Amino acid sequence: LVYELFERMAYYGIAANLFIYLTDKMHQGTVEASNNVTNWSGTVFLTPLLGAYVADAYLGRYWTFVVGSAIYLMVATPSYNPPILHVHGNTDT
Q: Which PANTHER family match (predicted)?
């Protein structure tokens, strides 16, 4: 129950901040930014269904955990440095 609470808090926090980021930093219009946030929201809700199907039909419980953990560790390592985006010639980070 607490996990679900924190998950919802993170979801709504990211959704609100994503809209502000897209309009302020990426210089998107409000319609385009709203469309992108809606697409992100739909992806967030639909990818677990795809993952559940792949896990149940092909991988099984053990390999789903192994593959998921490997992806998480690759992304969460401190040496992971995503590229800096330069939008419209702006070099501010």
A: OLIGOPEPTIDE TRANSPORTER-RELATED
